[in-house]
Structure formats: C-alpha cells, structure tokens
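Researcher: Quick sanity check before group meeting.
Model: Go ahead. Protein one:
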Amino acid sequence: MTIEQIYTGCLAQGAYYIESKGEAAIIDPLREVGPYIKRARQDGAKIKYIFETHFHADFVSGHLTLSDKTGAPIVYGPLANPKFDAIIATDGQEFPLGDLTIVALHTPGHTMESTTYLLRDKNGKDHAIFSGDTLFLGDVGRPDLAQKAADMTQEQLASTLYDSLRNKIMPLSDEVVVYPAHGAGSACGKNMMKETVDTLGHQKETNYALRADMTREEFIAEVTEGLLPPPKYFPLNVKMNKEGYEHVDAVLERGTRPLSPRAFEAAANEAGALILDVRNEEDFVKGHIPRSIFIGLDGSFAPWVGALVADTEQPILLVAPQGREEEAVIRLSRVGFDNTLGYLEGGFDAWKLGSLEYDTVSSVSADRLKDRMAEEEEELKVFDVRKESEYLSEHLVDAENTPLDFLNNHLAEFPAEEVFYLHCAGGYRSVIAASILKSRGIHNLVNILGGFDAIKEAGLPVTDYVCPSTL
C-alpha cells in the first residue's frame, strides 16, 4: 500500500495518490495532471479512480483532464450533479483498489455533496480518511460558501456539518490518519494547523470543533464566528469544476507565446489585457511597465490573483522571470485564469532596451522613515495593508489598516495629493497594493522597505494587542 500526499504550498492544497497491487486512485487532483500520471507509471500502476471530495471553490481540479487522459472514472459523493459523466456514489458505497477498499462517507455541511473517503487496509481495518474540506487539522470547513447552491443559511449548513462530524467521523478509531484537502493559509477555513497529516485521536483532543461535550448551538456559533467574505473567484471555480473547462494543454500553448516588446504593447492595447508582473517585488519597485499589476510568483501567487482580479476571463499578459513563464501560466490556470495571451520575450530588460516608457515605486527604509517622522511637524500618513488580525495584534502607532484583500473598498481613504506610506509584514503585499494604486492613477505613495518587520527593528513606536471590541 502506498499513500502519498502531493502538497502545493501556494494553494495550501493536498492531493493524494493511493496505490495497491498495480491499481491507483487520485483524490482531488490539481489542474496539471502530468505528475499523477508519471507517479502511477513509476509504480507500473493503472489509475482506476479519480475521487472528488466536493466541488472545489479555491482551485480548478484536474479531474476532467485526468479522466480524459487515463480513462479512469470520476467519483463524487451523494447529491453531486456535475454536467459530465461521473459515478455518483451512495453513502457507504465501497470501491475496491488492489487489496484495499475505499468507502464513500457522505459528510455534508461544507457543501451538500461533500464526501469523506475512508480507506480500509487488506484486513478490512479502517486506516485513513481523506476528509476534503469537511475536517481540517485544527478546524472544519467553513459553512458559508454553499449557501446559494444548497438554498440554506450558513447556520443550517453548520448544523448539518455538526451531524456529519459526530455521526460519520468522530466514531472512527483514534488511530485513523486524517488527510485533509487544505492546510494553514487556505481561505477554506480560519484556524488550520501548519501540519498537513495527523491522527483522528489527536484532532479529537485539539480541534475546537470536535469537542465531545460541544452542543449544536455552540458548534454553530463558533464555526460561523469571524468568517471573512470569500474571495470573488470562488463561485467561478465551482462553476468550472461542475460544468467543465478547457484542457490545460491548450491554456499552456496559448499562454506561453513569446511576444516582442512592440507586439506585447500592441496586444495589451488591442485586447484590453491586464499586464501582470510576476517578478520579485524588489525588481518591480526598480522598474515596471506603467499600469501593470505586481503579484510575485514567490508569494501566495494564485490566491492573490484570485482575490484581486475580479474576472477569470480577463485577458492577461505576463512579465515573468526568464524560464518561469510556463509556471506562471499553470499557476494562473489552477484558479481558473485561463486567458493568458503570452509573455514579454526577454522580460523587462527587453522593454527597457526598446526605449519604452517605464515606471518605478518610490521607497524608503524604516530607518529613514523614522528620521522623517522626527523631522516633520505634522503626522505622516501610514497605511498598513496586512490583515485585520495582524494589525490588531501589533501595529505602528497611528497607522490606518487598509487590508490588501479589500483594498478597493478603501480607495477614497488615500490622500489625493499628500504623500503617504504603505507597508505590510515584509514587503510583498505592500508592493501589490502600490501597483494597484498606481494603476488607478494614485502615485503619491511611498513603499516602506522590509515592512512591519523592519519598522519594529528600527524602533518606531508600535502598539500592543488591541481587542476589537474596544475599537
């Protein structure tokens, strides 16, 4: 028996490869399916099943492409209604895999089709669960995403999830291994552990939502408390997962077309394309194409694109580090952005060599900011684009919180002419914010290099924790 977790940090997502006696199953595959096919070939195995725990909102699954390339059927749990051929399992239905058995346990609540797959070994002993978004480590799936599809309130979905956990999962042995679909950093939960594998027994001891004495009312209140609005791309990804999408091979072929600087400029104008600069933030600050948006590959790239670019059909042109163009196109496709039209051949250096216009981001070190604060009679305007929870934990005295996720809701708060300063934790998110503001004609900004980490190191005045109820 082989169980392999294939974890993608950018999405905090776990796909799974299970193999026994030459038969393999894939659970919740990502959009690019080559790695799963290659892995099965290494074992001399045939992919027999593709299991989907639910219609994912935070990424586009590779189920359709993988099924097309391998002939393996796609399996969903009860109540799923995809617009393509699939096995809709009944609750408790068993699927033989070599000398193993995979059992579909219907566990609605995150979504109504959500299903946990229980793996039994050759002796029929419960070995592991692949819990999708029903049970995370340290948390459970948020119950607000499927309200419209289920025609239920988030409280009703939470109540359904309470029953699923207590009737289907908690009665299982403490020795059962839990393999969730996501870990810390995913927007599908709010309190996930950094670990990606655990035992059910340890989760019963540590996961707030699995307390043995927890009432239904307590569960509903705690699971629904503090839920932030979901990213705008979530419903679009659900639609693609449910209805179908273009194969990633075609997306890659279109998106990796090299374009000369002049052709790139023409394509941007003709298609109304968004120019997405995915280089390092330090490179973007030094020089970039005017009105381009920075979201660097070396951060939580795909989720930030999904959160900040409203339309998945938006034409996109890439400015990428040399050799990473294909990576950028693949990672965009994982969250449903399939309309990449090509990339700038030769990168930003080619743009500059072509004597084309470019822009920069004004920056200041935290030490120099400290000097300016001492020199200026009036208080400097500083905007903190970290999450509200980060800001409440600790922040620069008198800084205003304008979280990057909701930057568009704060545009009127930025001064029209007066110079203001931006920072995040380390510099990545503040450069994203700067690029968005500059694309909207707001250029009177200065990025604080090194973010809040540098601010603290420089000894600037910082607050302690502030309870939200006192604000």
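Researcher: Fine. The other one?
Model: Protein two, sequence then structure:
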Amino acid sequence: MKFSQLVEKLNTINHHPLKTYSSQDLEITGIAALNEAISGTLSYIEGAKFASQVKTTRASALILPKDEALQAEAVEQGIAWIEATDPRLAFAQALSLFYQPFKPSPGIHSTAVIDPSAQIGQNVAIGAYTVIQAGVTIGDQVLIHPNVVVYPAAQIGDRTILHASCVIHERARIGSDCVIQAGAVIGSEGFGFVPTAEGWYKMEQSGYVVLEDGVEVGSNSTIDRPAVGETRIARNTKLDNLVHIGHGCQVGQNSAMAAQVGLAGGVKIGNRVMLGGQVGVANQAKVGDGAQIGAQAGVLSHVKPGDVVIGTPAMPLKTFLKVSALIPRLPELHRAWKEVQKRLKERPD
C-alpha cells in the first residue's frame, strides 16, 4: 500500500485530513512495533519520552503526536510521518487496514446439528459440530466457529462472533457486535448452595445472562446466571481471558477487566471502570463510575466513583505507596520497638 493511500484511508476513518510528511510516496508493506520495525513498515510513538527511538528505529513511517521536535527529528532521519491526536488509536486503525482476523464464509457445515425451531438470520456461518438447540434466535451475519453449543431459547444478535468451543446457556441474551472468545461460557449456573444439617442444598439458578451490544468476552471466561433475575454486562465492556463474573452481577458500560479478575455474587461495577489483573471483588461490593483498581487488589467494600485503589484490602494508591515503602523496613522497625520496650521495662519507677 502506498503511503498516500494509507493516509487517504486513515482520513476516511477519522473523517478529517491528517497532517503528514513524506519525501516520496513510499510503499508501506506492513505494521510493526517500534523496536522490531524494518524498512517498509509503519510504527508509532506516543510521546516525547520515546523520542530517542526515532533515531534508532528502522521504520519507514511513523505515527506521531503533535510534537514539532519529534516531527523534525523524523524528517532528519528520513522517516515519513502522520500526525495524530492519539497515535495509539491511529496505529490501531492502520493495523486494521493490513490485517483482518479469519472469518468463515456464510453457510452451515454439514455436521452442525440445528433444531428445526431455531431461527437463523441471513448470511450466517455455522461451523462443524456446532449444536443449536430449540428456540434459539440467531441474527444476521453471525459467525459461529466449530464446536459451539447454544442451549435452548438463547438469543444471539447481529454480527456477533462465537469462537470455537464456547457455550451459550439457556435463555442467555447476547447483543449485536459481541465477540465471545474460544472456551468462554455464558450463562453457566451460579454458585448457589444453601447449608443444611445434612449438607448443601442446591438452589436452582433460574435467571439469565444479558450481554449488551459490543461486549467482548475473553477465552475461558465465565459469566454465571443467578437464581432469579439477571446478570448483566452493559454495552462495549471488555473482559480479558479467564475472567469470572458471579451470579447477579451488574457491570456498567465501557468498563474493562484484565485477566483473572473475579467478581463474587451481586457485585455492581459502574461505567468506565478499569480492573487490573487478578483483582477480586467481594460479594455485594460496589465500584463507582470511573474507578481504577490496580492488579491483585482485594476489594472488600465499596469503592467511590473516580477512586484509584490497590492492595488487599484495597486502599487509595497514595496510601498503598506509603505502606509499600515501609514494608522493607519492618524488621528494622520491629527491632527498634523491641529495644524501646526493653528500655521501658528497665526504667526505674
């Protein structure tokens, strides 16, 4: 793809012309990380702290922020550039012009098992050994990879992608433009057991799971249905691999959870919340809009909107940093305290 063609396509995506520089209309053959770029590839730099890498990269073109010094350095190195308000976003847009993930062609594989009562939309692809049970509704342009199982009365919205070996349980409702990665389970039974003198009594989980439009669920993640009511993930929220959402949770819009996050039952997560890897949130806890929770934090109670917390139990970031600074000194402080106690005992009345 010529540099001029790349710029034209990015202008179309962004709906306005981007400022650019190029001494020639060079050929862009692919996309690469800054330190792995070779001649012919496009990369990006997010800010001035990476300025030194302009001199060392072998990329033929860069996406740069609005920074005259960076742009001048690129010109000096003979590197073409594209100015973007958000270079990382522009790089993602450029990447989509060079690579598209595999999508099966529309059609139903001969080994798929589809109940006659299922409603299948137009231009749907259904892969080998997939099972679609009674009363299922599948929208238009849905892509279903091999070995997927969709339980009775589930609903799958338009253009949603179900990757291999994921399972959609009964009455789950998945919106449009969702992505369910391989091995994920949507609508599995919540962990509901009542203790009795004879042992555990199983409480049936009669509720269901709702994923709104644009939700993405990572590989081997699980979202449980509750005993009654619903577990809901609001629009455009993204879950990484190995995330567990307990029964009855409510997760807001545009939130994101890194790998191995676990939400206990009844948790409420607000909009635009970010949870780092291995965060655990206790039963019925609430996390307010815009909060950020650092990796491996244990959230035992409510987190206010906009708070940034980390640690177990979760505490404000500034407090955590002070505590962390003291931890290596604990042996020294303990010895000092023991010395104070000894002197107090030896002190005459």
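Researcher: One line on it for the slide.
Model: The helical segments are 3-14, 68-76, 87-98, 317-326, 330-346.
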